[in-house]
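Consider the following input, taken from an annotated entry for RGL1 protein (Smithornis capensis).
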Amino acid sequence: FSFSWQTTFQDGGEEVEEGAVYNVTLKKVQIQQAANKGARWLGGEGDQLPPEHTVRQYETSKIRAIKAGTLEKLVENLLTAFGDADFSYISIFLSTYRAFASTRAVLELLLDRFGSLETSSHGEMANLNSLESEIVLRAEIASVLRAWLDQCAEDFREPPDHTCLLKLLGYLKNNMPNSDMESKVQNLLKQFQNQEVETVDGLCSTSSSDLVDGEELEISNPEEFSSFQDHVVAEQLTYMDVMLFKKVVPYHCLGSIWSQRDKKENKNLAPTVRATITQFNAVTKCVVSTILGTKELKIQQRAKIIEKWIHIAHECRILKNFSSLRAIISALQSNSIYRLKTTWMCVSKDILLMYEELSEIFSDHDNYLTSRELLMKEATSKFANLDSSEKENQKKSQKRLQLQKNKGVMQGTVPYLGTFLTDLIMLDTALQDYVEGGLINFEKRRREFEVIAQIKLLQSSCNSYCLIPDQKFIQWFRRQRHLTEEESYKLSREVEAAADTNVLSPKSQKSMVKRISTLFLGTDVITPSKEQPPKSSPPGGSSGESTDSASVSSCEFNHSETEDVCVTPLSSPEDPLKKVQLGPGGPMSSCETLPGYDSDKGSIGSDKGSGSKCSIFDKSSGSDSGSSSGTGRTSKVLPVYNRQNGGSCIIRVSMDGINDSVYKSILITNQDRIPDVTQRALLKHNLEPEAVEDYELVQVISGDKELVFPRDANVFYGMNSHVNFDFILRKKA
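Applying the prediction step yields:
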């Protein structure tokens, strides 16, 4: 016989059980069957029968995917999901359950409640005897435990007692003695016991605390920095980024986890994410220090250092290291570096064009669509895809790529993690944790898993890197003393003032200003006649400004919280001090963390003119992850920042007088009034929600204009929707 088939899906609505709601999809398969023998006698060619001699059969199966449920039902579904054809459920649950339950709670339900049952919930098992049912149930539990240990072994790291791992080991000794899984758990326990507890400093190999005895922090020696070849620096930065990114525990990135890091009791929360942030900040500060650290440098020498960093950024692009690439670009666009107009004049045209192309990767247009598409395009490719519009750059790029191919060296991909943090923060803000009846909203977890799966895919790709640490460079990198924001700005002014007095005529200065302004901002602008030192950045987002020129500058910070760094964008010539900042995949107006890593302060699509939005919330993003079977169900458009949509939107609220630059994302609807929004904002900022009466809510319209809301106003209808959705919570006078 020969067969061919065609599959179609049909929405089957919902099924409601006690403690659970399921999405149902009907899978209809059309099977076309024909007898091979005698086909030619009936007029067929080869083994194909004419249509009139073909038998068509239809098979319809039901796919159930849990939409919401109690914790007990969600855990029970781990044992029945395969029978319901929800094949990705176990991976989704294991990747996201930490947002609503602890490892202990899930393990106790799985082993104590379901592990002691003598019958399974499968209907086809009803007629099996008790022994057969028990064997099947144990096999299902073993399958879940095996997946848990393979995918999320870090869940069981609980020093010093490792209670959950010991409980699991006891279950295996009683129910699966001498099994491979028992040996695996014993080995994992020994591994955890032999390892020191990993801290932020321990994870980040580039921390200044790693200096050997006798070493001191120092300002970079230009000659020593110049002695490192560009590709060596890029490879070593990539080596450090890869080691840290591979250690990132994906659930640490979940919005509900990462957004809680500011609480005092959570200072060690998400250490793997904090470590990548520390490294990102170290790179940006290293760039600034090497350029500004030595005042005695001539203009041409300083320009050569800028050129060298642009070449290093290009090498990072060839290595598909988007993390260090963005760190370098952000540093070069920082206020203290961007304002060195005289120095930038000495940068060659070809290298400026290369810099422009690299900067364009992180353009904020349409919620950083370019960098998102590029990241997904190259996630699993062997080599970078370099389509440079500048011929000379293209020749150099292709030559370097060909050299890699000749050596047979494959590259992984190191992403800019801030983009994923933003997406997860926005999903956490836009979707409710619980639905009607107090059931856990598992549709939200399916959406989050779409992002988590991308992180895991990229982590896997990093195994392709074959990089060897260069201890000479790593020690040099660790020794660098980072300039504070005030120091870098002061040095920048001194350097530029000295350059202005002995190099350029007013005409050439004007020409250079126009050239650099066009490069960064895309339009001709007027230079200011006077500058002032940096101040704290006012709220205001990115409306009207060139947000892809936002940047990281040095900021003094405590070593205990090394993930925090001031973010100061380059000054536009129209307003050298107006600070517009990049959030994790979007603009931000805080001076608290590097672009992308303070997700709670990030904004999605804050450019009013473009009406941009987060791609994971868009209808065009494809199928809804809620239908894990691939039914292609259309996603709902979710609330986003800076746009009212379907009776809801996301606003950002900062606390006046406490930390003006720290924003928290708040979901509001057209039913919310001032007390409701105020209470949620206080909770987000870890303050007592009972103090609602002591605060007033204010929307920032511009630098000198505010909109103060009356006590019982409807925020959704009362707000100004033509400016950024940035609010301040202020104590009443």
